[in-house]
# Entry
Amino acid sequence: MEIPSKPYRVGFVLVPNFSLMAFCAAMEPMRNANMIASKKLFEWELISHTGGMMPSSSGLELATQSIPETRGHDYDMVLVCGGTDARDFRDDALFNFLRNFERRGKALGAISTGTFVLAKAGLLDEHACTVHWQFAESFQETYPHIDHRSEIFVWDRNRVTVGGGIAAMDMMLDVIRHLYGAGLATDVSDQFVHGRQREGNELQRSDIRHRYGVVHPNLIEAMQIMEESVEDPVAKSEIAERIGLSTRQLERLFRHNLGDSPTRFYLKLRLERARNLLRQTSMPITEISLACGFDSASHFARKYREIFGFRPSEDRKPRSLSTPPRDWPEDEG
# Structure
């Protein structure tokens, strides 16, 4: 392996309300690698479409350079850091900056919802990519032609996309390993008490067993069938038949382990999916209701209000943060 003769330079593009957690998880491993090596292995700069102070999703602001100020800067990698508003972000000057950089054939990537920015700039066509799992459905609805994966980070030629959060550290450890060796990557990982360095092909979300704290194999199989059949719900009797139980046994299994009926659990699962689509896409409510297995918009709206306490149309409008969350209503039995 040939060690770079000069510092590896990274340009971080921050969009409004970027994820501070994901940004730090990508930047801090480089700072730590410099410290451990007692030499400047990495350099980085912060860029934005406007320059000046750029707010993160937590409200903290970081100073950035404007795009014109970066001319002539020889980056080896440019990463777009997204956050809560990246899906709707648009700036033609920034898109042109990213397209011009892409023509150099160097590493270009995105962290968290920054994937939306690359896609909107036309820089992910014919490339595999990932985005934070909470925005995956929105991304797939908006860019159905792009190969989306559910992995923590994806390298496809000179493109890298990262699911966000701590996965940005795993991606940067992968960069350190390829540039400066596995030993340094391990030392950096240990400094952050990160433990095992994850490979990019690992899934972003925990499996059902860990997400719901369940261990019964029949229950896990039933829940998996439900998660995979949101648009075309499977009848309770058919789920029971598929996993080799009677309908009554399936009922007892859900109530004993989750305190809920299979029907009610399935309904909540579908409505949570609908809620994500409402908040993250511009899909008409009628289309969302169909995509989540409801035969009519009125039935969907009634169940949505029953579970969340307000109509689907109201969930697209900002609400007061002081409004207390509504508990799940009692099971109808």
Q: What stands out?
A: Residues 318-333 have pLDDT under 50 and may be disordered. Strands lie at 8-14, 42-48, 52-55, 61-66, 77-81, 107-111, 128-129, 147-148, 153-156, 159-162. The CA atoms of residues 264 and 332 lie 8 Å apart. The radius of gyration is 23 Å.
